[in-house]
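Weekly structure sync, notes
Attendees: PL (lead), two postdocs, one rotation student
Agenda item 3: pending single-chain targets
PL asked that the sequence for the first pending target be pasted directly into the notes so everyone works from the same version. It is reproduced below exactly as submitted, 167 residues in total.
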Amino acid sequence: MASQAPDENNIIGAVGALFDNTRMEALEQVRREFFANLSHELRTPLTSIQTYVETLLSGALYDKENNIKFLKIIAKHASRMQNLAQDISDLAAIETGKLALAPQSIRLANLVREVHELLKDVMVARRVRFEMDIDENFIVFVDPKGLEQILFNLVQNAVISIAPMDW
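Predicted structure, written out during the meeting:
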């Protein structure tokens, strides 16, 4: 077989491209699981809110023994949904690279005290004692709002999970 010089009618060679999609597939799986969990997390408070509102509207509003209890349950679930909405917003900002961080040096003890102050009523209601053992001069370089949100979520979740309130 004689070798021919390449011309416009003769194609010699091949080009191929390989891509490793492992990371993308793993990220897509995480995304699917997140939205499945989110759907479940939203359905639960929505169902409770709807049930208690219907109960109140059907006459329980005038039941002095239970009406405040039902309203507190509604408020708790509405707050949970608000937190979920904020989490979704924060995740979207992180994914798009639009999360604006403003790191600065702060005293960690002050920030932890602020988180404690925000959650103090919940802790009292659930009979949870909060103790802090942080050197007053311990400085961290962080985005204060971001760290406050992280600590708030962690402490709130801990308080709620270890000492469920009797609704």
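Discussion points:
- The radius of gyration is 27 Å.
- DSSP finds four helices and two strands in the chain.
Action: rotation student to compare against the earlier draft before next sync.
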